[in-house]
Amino acid sequence: MRAVAVISLRRFSELLIPFFFCAVTVRAQESASPGRGDFGVPLQPFLAGQSANDSARGEPIRVAYYAPRPQPTPVPRAESVEEDNDDTEIANEAPIIRSNRPIVEGSRAVLRSGIACAPSEAPDNIKNAIWAVNSLRRKPYVWGGGHGSFNAYGYDCSGAVSFALHYAGLLDAPLLSSDLRHYGRRGCGRWITVYSRDGHTFAIIAGLRLDTTDMRDGDAVGPRWYAEGRDTRGFVARHPAGW
Prior knowledge:
Residues 3-7, 21-26, 28-58 and 73-92 have low confidence and may be disordered. The chain is an alpha+beta fold. 27% of the residues lie in helices and 18% in strands. The longest helix is centred in the first third of the chain and has 31 residues, at 2-32. It has a domain at 123-239: endopeptidase fold (from Nostoc punctiforme) (Alpha-Beta Complex). It is globular, with a radius of gyration of 57 Å.
């Protein structure tokens, strides 16, 4: 029995000797390599009050990033710009006459079968006025006609004269006889003269009389051309500046 115990003790001692030898070897390696962890990474001493950034300063972290290529700045396209019209020029622009345009040589208009032929030497706006008035030769006399609009069923005296001035590019809105007494400048004009008094107005355009009154019978027949003149006593003569 004792022999068996001795044998067991001996075997136990043989097992412990290698264990202690390994432990002593590991201890010696740890003493010979201070400051390294389990994977051979150097350990830094930690001090109280020291931040983590100060305790271990490794190499700066390098981050790879994609730098986009600069895109070329698009050149702005030129936009079409609409030019503003000059309102004053439009207001004084003579309307286009699309009717017949009879014309004669010289500086005086000629009346043929109630139709006025514009003189070739007259400016274009004067010719336009003559040709436009030709379209009124069958219009009746209407009191107040031609004042609501330049295009009307009938015309009175000031409405007919305003119509002619408008198509000459010299008037924007119809005027009454009393207003035409102060129109333009005083005296007779080169191409147009307006004669006004209270209650009646007529005009002499390139030598022909535009009137709503037929002096032969004294009736108000509507806007017509006449080759003969009439007594201008009591009328005020006015003319558009420059004409």
